[in-house]
Design brief:
Largest sheet: 8 strands, antiparallel, barrel
Strand order of the largest sheet: 1-3-2-8-5-7-6-4
Shape: globular
Protein name: EthD domain-containing protein
CATH architecture: 2-Layer Sandwich
Number of helices: 6
GO molecular function, one term: oxidoreductase activity
Number of strands: 8
Radius of gyration: 18 Å
Helix content: 25-40%
Number of domains: 1
Distance between the termini: 17 Å
CATH class: Alpha Beta
CATH topology: Alpha-Beta Plaits
Pfam families: EthD
Oligomer: single chain
InterPro entries: Dimeric_a/b-barrel, EthD_dom
Length: about 260
């Protein structure tokens, strides 16, 4: 399944609460009414975040994101049909009312589940909002260092990820699920996505890794892991332009297995 991730920040004049309420209840309703070939639509509302490193004297790019949406499609043509429908819908133009559109970031990606030591138990009352997922989801946007080939980046991250968890025992024990979203070569043909989200020269991210924990109380677990990851002996990430978002996941559309409603 093809995934399109889009990270945005709120337009001028809106509080974060205004923005998140609008995209969930109004924009989310529009998406359900005009879903086209969309298989799933997940919103991730930002609770807290960090950009760059403590060694940076100032931010090297826009350091503000209020939500990340995940759009899932069966095929690339399905994605194009949804982003550029033959008959106009109100979904695309609606972005101007809540997002600072020109500064959005998009990544077309393929999912990979990364094994964890302590997956969420089947009986987990009051913690996981969805089956097999924790109550806090951290989304880590990782920018590849220019000196590293894309083919090597994936291998280096996986090695560094495993090493970081071994050096961060609290993080290893609290991580309930981990998913790597790897940037696809299809991003070279992302004109439809750029047009839909009104982007202007967006930065390129080769990986968005997602980490699930039971509650916000485990935020320190990710920080422990993140610090260990940054200390990797191999220079393969531009940490100054990488960032992570602590989010609450909200499902707008999700088809169950074996069931596909009419478009």
């Amino acid at each position: 399944m093809l995934k399109l991730l889009a990270a945005s920040r709120r337009r001028p004049g809106l509080t974060r609460a205004d923005y998140q309420r609008y995209i969930e209840f109004y924009h989310g309703t529009l998406a359900r009414e005009h879903r086209s070939s969309l298989r799933a639509y997940i919103q991730n509302h930002v609770i807290d975040s960090a950009f760059g490193t403590l060694q940076d004297s100032t931010h090297q790019q826009i350091a503000d994101r209020d939500a990340v949406v995940e759009l899932m499609f069966d095929t690339f043509p399905d994605m194009i049909n949804a982003l550029e429908p033959k008959e106009p819908t109100p979904v695309g133009p609606d972005g101007q009312f809540f997002a600072d559109e020109c500064n959005s970031i998009t990544v077309m990606a393929e999912e990979e589940e990364i094994p964890v030591a302590c997956p969420v138990p089947s009986f987990n009352p009051g913690l996981a909002g969805l089956k097999n997922q924790g109550g806090m989801k951290v989304m880590h946007f990782v920018m590849r260092d220019d000196s590293i080939y894309p083919e090597d980046f994936q291998k280096y991250w996986r090695e560094a990820h495993d090493e970081a968890l071994e050096k961060a025992p609290y993080a290893k024990s609290q991580l309930r699920r981990c998913q790597a979203n790897w940037r696809l070569r299809l991003n070279d043909n992302d004109a439809a996505a750029r047009k839909h989200f009104k982007q202007v020269n967006p930065p390129v991210y080769n990986l968005v890794s997602c980490h699930w924990y039971d509650t916000m109380e485990q935020a320190g677990a990710f920080r422990e892991y993140h610090e260990a990851l940054q200390k990797s002996s191999r220079k393969f990430v531009n940490w100054s332009k990488s960032f992570f978002l602590m989010t609450k996941q909200i499902v707008i559309i999700r088809d169950t297995d074996g069931y596909r409603p009419a478009a």
